[in-house]
Write a structure and sequence with these properties.
Strands 1, 2, 3, 4, 5, 6, 7, 8 and 9 form a nine-stranded mixed beta sheet that branches. The protein has a single domain (about 20-220), classed as Aminopeptidase (3-Layer(aba) Sandwich). It has helices at about 40-45, 55-70, 95-100, 125-130, 155-160, 165-175, 185-190, 205-220; strands at about 20-25, 30-35, 45, 75-80, 85-90, 105-115, 145-150, 180, 195-200. With about 230 residues, the chain is an alpha+beta fold. Coenzyme A binds near residues 86, 112 and 123.
Length: about 230
């Protein structure tokens, strides 16, 4: 597919490191919101011990540093006194269905997590506000960003929420950043009725790309990985 908005067909042109950098006063103290991270700088911070939903925090730190080194990996985080307590990551799609249907203007919100001790006090929202509701930062307006929500990626155990309640919270939260549900034939999404594909179409994405994305969701177009 022809990319009409200028990104190279194969490589993501990353925004400058720390294109987002804000200090926010919170009840916890002064929170530094920054990203995308230089992997070297990321390695100098500690990852808070309660960030172990996907893997133990030490290993998660290593995996975030590895992702930040990749040409498509973007990490944003909330930092309190030299400790990362919440983060969100972006990359080229990692799910099989989307690897096969990648196109230049497609990104995936890969994971987001807040330290277990500091959940439900607005940290993720502070982070997402800085990334998506920030007049000085419009990088993501050039992309369609998918967020593939599957039951197994949710922390049902620690929240004691059932999958339908968790799904409702995710839908409400992501809607604030213009992520809306898309129908898809992706077998991984269709595996469980609570799974859901959310996508955010950036303001600078053209109709041809939206049509292409819509066909990708339904598996109508021929498979063409350009990423
Ligand atoms: C999902 C997650 C990142 C949210 O982070 P957070 O910092 O606790 O989120 P916030 O405090 O900013 O709250 C965001 C919204 O979720 C709601 N929420 C968060 N935890 C909740 C809970 N346990 N029960 C009910 N609502 C909850 C908040 O009320 C808020 O709702 P609003 O948008 O209507 O105001 C965090 O729960 C987490 O790390 N979960 C484990 C990993 C995960 O599920 N990631 C998402 C898929 S990749």
């Amino acid at each position: 597919m022809k990319d009409l908005t200028g990104q190279d067909d194969f490589n993501l042109q990353k925004p400058p490191y720390d294109a987002v950098s804000q200090v926010v006063s919170t009840d916890l103290g002064r929170l530094h919101i920054r990203g995308p991270f230089d992997p070297e700088i990321l390695s100098q911070y500690q990852l808070s011990g309660g960030l172990n939903c996907f893997r133990p925090s030490k290993r998660q730190h290593d995996s975030l540093i590895e992702l930040a080194k990749q040409e498509d990996g973007l990490i944003f985080a909330a930092i309190l006194a030299n400790k990362i307590i919440s983060y969100v990551t972006f990359q080229k799609p990692d799910f099989p269905w989307w690897i096969r249907r990648c196109f230049p203007r497609l990104l995936e919100l890969g994971s987001m997590e807040t330290d277990l001790s500091w959940r439900n006090i607005g940290l993720s929202k502070t982070l997402m506000d800085a990334i998506f509701i920030n007049k000085d930062y419009n990088f993501f307006e050039n992309f369609i960003i998918i967020a593939v929500h599957t039951v197994h990626s949710w922390d049902l155990k620690n929240t004691c929420l059932d999958p339908w309640s968790y799904r409702k919270i995710m839908l409400k939260m992501f809607k604030q950043y213009n992520f809306v549900p898309w129908e898809t034939e992706d077998p991984e999404v269709r595996e469980h009725p609570c799974n859901i594909l959310l996508a955010r179409v950036g303001a600078n994405v053209n109709p041809e790309e939206i049509r292409h994305f819509s066909n990708c969701c339904l598996g109508l177009n021929s498979q063409n990985s350009k990423c």
